[in-house]
Amino acid sequence: MNIIDLLRSSLFVLAHWFGGSFGLAIIAASIALRVAMLPVTLPATRRRLIRERRERELGPALADLKKRFAKDPARLQPAMQALYAANGLSLVDHRAMFDSLVQFPPGALLYGAIVRAGDMKAE
């Protein structure tokens, strides 16, 4: 028995608790997953909001760079990278990618369990 089968079985148990409603079981499992992921999602959201604020502050300088290098796009990218680096940012937020990768497997497992449970109910 793998983890998807364990989650699928848990969905059936939840459905039984909710009077046979598989929809309520899915909602309850989704809420439980969201609550379990709070230690990851809250700091990630906080970091995202801080980054967005800092990027908004860079808006005027970024617009100036785009205007200055409008005829030379090859020089725009390094200038943008230097502006971001001078303000403690990178063009690509690697931490946000990592946070997304950490959150993806539990959601994918729950989705797989729901699909597999739906396949069993259809038979």
In short:
The protein has 123 residues and is mainly α.
Task: Spell out the key features of this protein.
123 residues, mainly alpha, elongated
How many distinct helices?
6
How would you sum up the major sheet?
A: none
- What percentage of amino acids are in beta strands? under 5%
User: Roughly what percent helix?
Assistant: over 70%
Structure description:
The chain has 123 residues and is mostly helical. It has one domain (3-122). The longest helix is centred in the C-terminal third of the chain and has 29 residues, at 94-122. The two termini are 20 Å apart. 84% of the residues lie in helices and 0% in strands. It has six helices and no strands.
Topology (SSEs and partners):
Layout: H1 3-17, H2 22-36, H3 38-57, H4 59-68, H5 73-86, H6 94-122
Helix pairs in contact: 1-2, 1-6, 2-6, 3-6, 4-5
